[in-house]
Amino acid sequence: QGKFTLLRDTRTDGSFLVHHFLSFYLRAGCKVCFVALLQSFSHYSIVAQKLGVSLAAAKERGQLVFLEGLKSCLDLLFGDEEQPGEPNPLQFLSGGSCGLRALFDLVRRSLAAGERGSRPGPVLLVDDLSVLLSLGAAPVAVLDFVHYCRVCVCCQLQGNVVVLVHSNEDAEDEENDLLVNSLCHHSDLILWAEGLATGFCKDVHGQIRIIKRLSLQGAEQDLVQTYQYKIQ
Asked: How many structural domains is the chain composed of?
């Protein structure tokens, strides 16, 4: 508990890691706030069913708070006026100077509400942060959002934060590079999925580097393990 996990992918799609953590934490009984900026609810629900988890049932019993970023964007740009007291979590798209404050307020309200009892710490899952840059958010605003989420979820609530970012070594995207490099420095654990340098292979889909940030705890070097993986 209290850890920040970064999911990173290069030359491949690392969304399988998001599906793994979503089903893992729901099965563990954690309260989960899922900020889904990349796909629709039905997409995540279908994959979760294959992994033996019902997202609809988790939403009904209040264990899962799901923000469908695609729907929020459409509601803000083409929908009706927002209800008083319930600002759109992505209202920075309308040109206001509030940054990502509304999105953080949603996370804080979702995970701080209700009695925990014997339930494990809450979890914030984001898929994926790079989309916020594409929508026009400044890198500093995204990093501020992550910082406040870490303070709220990891420190105050003793929960976990898991975020996915895309990185492309060939693309000259300075803003995304700044975001990825900054998050790597602050992560307790990095899961870095990479496509094979040799190209497509039927038996092996890629390799994953597991980087345990022991240097944050005073050790001289981080522990790095590299595995090849195949998605079943």
From this structure: 1
The type of residue at 79 is G
**Neighbour count for residue 37 (Cβ, 10 Å):** 22
Q: CA 33 → CA 127, 183, 214, distances in Å? A: 11, 20, 27
Domain containing residue 61: CATH number: 3.40.50.300
Domain of 145 in residue numbering reads as: 3-203
Q: What is the pLDDT of residues 107-137, one digit of tens each?
A: 999 998 765 666 789 999 999 899 999 888 9
3-state secondary structure of 20: helix
Residue 125 lies in a domain: yes
How far is the C-alpha of 77 from the C-alpha of 94, rounded, in Å?
8
The pLDDT tens digits of the residues spanning 130-179 come to: 999 988 899 999 999 999 999 999 999 999 999 999 988 777 789 999 99
Q: What is the mean pLDDT of residues 49-54?
A: 95
